[in-house]
């Protein structure tokens, strides 16, 4: 299963926010750090805000922060929220000649469920380590110097 860029960027955003040293940051700082388009990031952040995983503060001194503890955000839940479909293959468009007899879809579905079940107990907190933290903090410092 290959995740869409939408999901990939959602993970990057959550990791960034989980490692922030200041209370709030901006979408622009995240987009600059990861070279993500701002409009794409705004859609992702909006979805994560509605899920309660990001808190948004409006206004001149506003910004975004993690909306809950990183250990409360399951990796499986992020994938399920961000992916448009979790169907491993599309046997209906165009209709596959062997769709009624083929075992591939069932096997891929089972493999995907094992993948998601593996991720279910793992959280954004599990993605945080010294090396990643060092890179995020270096990016924050660079961003602060440019402000």
Give a brief description.
This protein has 147 residues and is mainly alpha-helical.
Order of helices and strands: HHHEEHHH
What's the CATH class label? Answer: Mainly Alpha
Kindly report how far apart the N and C termini lie: 39 Å
Give the strand order, joined by hyphens, for the main sheet.
1-2
Characteristic terms for this protein:
Arc Repressor Mutant, subunit A, elongated, mainly alpha, about 150 residues
Account of the 3D structure:
A hairpin with a 5-residue loop joins strand 1 (54-57) and strand 2 (63-66). The protein has helices at 5-19, 27-34, 38-50, 75-82, 104-119, 130-146; strands spanning 54-57, 63-66. It is elongated. The mean pLDDT is 90. The chain is mostly helical and 147 residues long. The protein has six helices and two strands; from the N terminus they run H-H-H-E-E-H-H-H. Helix 1 (5-19) packs across helix 3 (38-50), helix 1 crosses helix 4 (75-82) and helix 2 (27-34) packs across helix 3. The chain has a single domain, classed as Orthogonal Bundle (Arc Repressor Mutant, subunit A), CATH 1.10.10.10. The longest helix is centred in the last third of the chain and has 17 residues, at 130-146. Strands 1-2 form a two-stranded antiparallel ribbon. The protein starts with a helix and ends with a helix.
């Amino acid at each position: 299963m290959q995740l869409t860029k939408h999901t990939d960027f959602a993970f990057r955003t959550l990791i960034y926010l989980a490692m922030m040293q200041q209370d709030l940051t901006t979408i622009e700082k995240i987009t600059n750090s990861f070279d993500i388009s701002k409009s794409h990031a705004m859609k992702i952040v909006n979805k994560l805000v509605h899920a309660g995983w990001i808190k948004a503060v409006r206004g001149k001194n506003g910004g975004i922060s993690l909306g809950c503890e990183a250990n409360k955000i399951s990796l499986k839940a992020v994938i399920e929220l961000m992916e448009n479909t979790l169907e491993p293959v599309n046997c209906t468009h165009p209709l596959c000649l062997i769709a009624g007899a083929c075992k591939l879809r069932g096997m891929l579905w089972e493999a995907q469920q094992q993948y998601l079940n593996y991720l279910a107990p793992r959280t954004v907190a599990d993605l945080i380590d010294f090396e990643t933290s060092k890179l995020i903090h270096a990016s924050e410092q660079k961003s602060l110097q440019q402000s």
